[in-house]
Amino acid sequence: MKNELARDVERVVLFLDVNGERRDLLLPVHKTLLEVLREDMQLTGTKHGCELGECGTCTVLIDGRPELSCLLLPVQLQGRAITTIEGMAHGAELHPLQTAFAELGAAQCGYCTPGILLSARSLLESNAKPSRDEIREALAGNLCRCTGYTKIIEAIELAAGRMK
Amino acid sequence: MRDRPHPPLRGDLPGERGGENLKVVGRPLPRVDAAAKVTGRAMYADDLLPARTLHCRILRSPHPHARILSIDTSAARRIPGVVAVITGSDLPIKFGILPVTQDERALEHEKVRYVGDPIAAVAATDEEIAAAACDAIAVEYEVLEPVMSINAALGVPKDERIQDYGGPNNVHKFVALEFGEVEGVFERADHVREDVFFFQGNTHLPMEQHSAVATYIDGKVTLWSSTQVVHYVHRALAKVLELPMHRIRVIGAAHGGGFGGKTDPFAHEIIVAKLAMMTGRPVKCTLTREEVFYAHRGRHPVLMWVRTGVTRDGQITAMHFRTALDGGAYGSYGVASTFYTGALQTVTYDIPAYRFEGCRVFTNKPPCGPKRGHGTPQPRFALELHLEKIAHDLGIDPVELKRRNFVKPDTRTVNWLRVTSCGLEECTEKVMVASRFRERKKQAGHGMGFAISSYLSGAGTAIYWNDMPHSEVQIKVDRGGVTAYCGAMDIGQGSDSVLATIVAEELGLQPADVRLVTADTDTTPIDLGSYSSRVTFMAGNAALEAARKMRALLVEAVEAGGHRFEDVTFEEASILAEARFGTLATAGSYTPPKIAGPYKGSGVGPSPAYSYSACVVDLDADARTGLITVNKVWIAHDVGRAINPLLVEGQVEGSVYMGLGEALMEEQAFRKGLHKWPSMLEYKSPTFLDMPEVETFIVETIDPEGPYGAKEAGQGPLLPVPPAVCAALHDALGVWIDEIPVTPEKVVEALRRKEKGEPARYGPSAFPSIPYPPTIKVEPPPKDPSATAASI
């Protein structure tokens, strides 16, 4: 029966580096990083829009690169640096992207915002002064239904200008 | 002593034409919840996990239309970890958003009407167990012939009707109204034109899947939900759970996007409350993305026929508009949607005689309901293109023809709608000049198109008939701090920021200084929620009244102490006032004026104020592939007054985006009873790469009744985008696409027909024969613009 399959699962002990903190976990091997972040670590800043790799909402950074946490298994990620939205600010000091998003109204409902901020951070770390087309290309995998993207692009440009 | 200047006290009436010396109103300040949203700390419904929470999954129908013969849950109940299983017999009472269509059950045990209709629900210790238990429920069906189109619904059903009300056949609702006499006018018109249009259905696709968490403690249900309207959920829970309202508390969690899709009370909200009552534990249900497509309540597919008579110089003399709405399986807001497909044509164009016939049918699809623009983007698309074609017939510039027919401020339409402030002319001029529309060069493959629109600043009548206010605000001041309480739900549009800004303006503070408690039926006074673009206007006016009363108390106490209000800080003023009066609490409310016309059905359409928009779309279209690239959109929006221009721009840009998605790609389509693409990958929506540059102009007409003159911003600017795209496409390639969405296949097909010498268009060929009832004739209002329904 399916329920027995669901219960009788292989579990693994894992050490994950999340936002610079080492976390020790005992997890079913099939549990996605998205589920582990939200359910086992209470890092609910990472959101989900489809859980099928379609919308970009659950984006986190793995060694600085944007990845979809709904498609990743923690067993793949030992020794890798995982960054979530909770790890974006330095203590109480917001990342310049976060400040720019707040100032320019780049977040409306805010649900896609964590994933977009992390994708944008990765972009600015590899390209300090991206063109509008480069911003669009880098963020094409992150859907937003509220903003029409315009203010997000403006906020990324504002942050890039300030980070120089 | 003073640290912040106070604004001068400006009269007592909400909506007074103020404007001078505004300190925070009109400033592009960050939203009050910006920090929570950019740090991931805003708590959405699915982020909540009370201790011992059980997880709920819902078993849904795999058939579009079937009778349920039996449901066997015994195997599911035996699964370890399963705590409760419920079926329709546990929740038999029907509910629905409109009092006239109480046709839904949280769980259906007699009959299912679309793929996705809920049948049973399981609460288990984790979600996987709950899902496995749903799989273990055995349901025996008698499969019925599904009804999947407007034409099929109009015909005699093969097996049986979808609902047991309405009719004939699967007709849900008819409307037939005539304002003035159209037939004689058509005969006398210089030119009469008829067109048929189709607007395909599409869905809201909020980024957040619907989610609800319920607890049951001390005999009271508490529900946190991603709803747009805590009050309507509250009412539905009370009815279905058979509990008095005071034993239910509904709280709006941080909201991940609505667009109308979270305005109905939903099955999962009732189910988790019931399961929490049965198990004594918190229960949570978060819909999967596929389930969100089934929850739907999105844009109705609408087939439209329009006939208009005009004079030689393009003046409209009469219009006859027919609509047929594919409603899906349940009522939802559908009765209102049907009226809306005919109501607002007259709010942009002066139509001296107007006849409207509408019809909504039931089909075996997820129920349609209100999506951004509720029932009006479809007729707006048809009307704008129809007038464009009339202009071509007459050899008149389409912009000029439309302008000649614009409504004027402070008038009443033929269907009794009261127009106050109206910035149509100014909006049109802004986009004309900025886009250099008139100077554009004719060039194959490149085109520009123009369209206008209007939308409500809140519906003038409530969902259920009553004489009570539509919005209420309380303000508390103690020990130097101020808190505002209101039932309004911020769904991302920024209603919390609007409330804080208005209270701050009146009390001489910054928005961030105002604490807010919103969308909680236990602690906040009523607001009817975030739909019909009502919150800025209605909650805003309620906040203004409450804040001005509070300011008056502060002024009195300060002056009694021998000081001038302008010379003390807010904290000092509040201490003086609390010492003098005791508890400082004020309240304000807003009830829309009674302006509906004297006829049945006049409750849909009236609004205390209408916003206006004008839009120009510039695009390239490839005649070989049919691919359209939108280069730029110029849009001007008459918002009355921008309480926060940053948030207004955000609403306008977001509307343009959603309008482009509907115009070019979004489509809720079905094959053999199944949704063709219930996923975010296959249901195409615009990405960063698809979105053109948008240049936004805010036009301020200072509405006489809006708070500081403000009107709506969140819906109206979507409406002109689809017709402007089609007008631009005609400008580029010389073909009409009379059907939304405008896909490359349709463009190529229209070009092929043009080459063969057939009519250069793609769209529906005919409007079906519909047995509309006899038309109700309504005398138009008298020409005197100051006349009101009450005074006649």
The major pleated sheet of chain B works out as: 7 strands, mixed
**What count of helical segments of chain A does DSSP give?**
6
CATH class call of the largest domain in chain A: Alpha Beta
CATH fold annotation of the largest domain in chain A: Ubiquitin-like (UB roll)
How confident overall, as mean pLDDT of chain A? 94
The number of domains of chain A is 2
Which range does the strand content of chain B fall in?
Answer: 15-25%
Enumerate how many helices of chain B there are, as a single number.
19
Q: What is the strand content of chain A?
A: 15-25%
Total of domains of chain B: 3
- Note the gap between the termini of chain B: 56 Å
How helix-rich are the residues of chain A, as a percent range? 25-40%
**Number of strand segments of chain B:** 31
Name of the top-level CATH class of the largest domain in chain B: Alpha Beta
Question: What are the SSEs and their pairings?
Answer:
The complex is a heterodimer of chains A (164) and B (792).
Chain A: H1 2-7, E1 11-18, E2 21-28, H2 33-40, E3 59-62, E4 65-68, E5 81-83, H3 96-104, H4 113-126, H5 132-138, H6 150-163
Chain B: H1 34-38, E1 54-60, E2 66-72, H2 74-78, E3 82-87, E4 111-112, E5 118-124, H3 127-135, E6 138-143, H4 150-154, E7 171-179, H5 183-188, E8 191-199, E9 211-217, E10 220-225, H6 230-241, E11 248-252, H7 267-279, E12 283-286, H8 289-295, E13 302-310, E14 316-326, H9 334-343, H10 345-348, E15 354-361, H11 377-394, H12 398-405, E16 411-412, E17 418-419, H13 424-435, E18 446-456, E19 471-478, E20 481-486, H14 495-507, E21 514-518, H15 535-560, H16 570-581, E22 584-590, E23 610-621, E24 628-638, H17 645-664, E25 670-671, E26 674-675, E27 693-699, H18 721-733, E28 736-737, E29 739-740, H19 744-755, E30 761-762, E31 776-778
Parallel strand pairs in B: 1-12, 7-31, 8-29, 10-11, 14-15, 20-21, 24-27, 28-30
Antiparallel strand pairs in B: 1-5, 2-4, 2-6, 3-5, 7-15, 8-13, 9-10, 9-12, 13-14, 16-17, 18-23, 19-20, 19-22, 23-24, 25-26
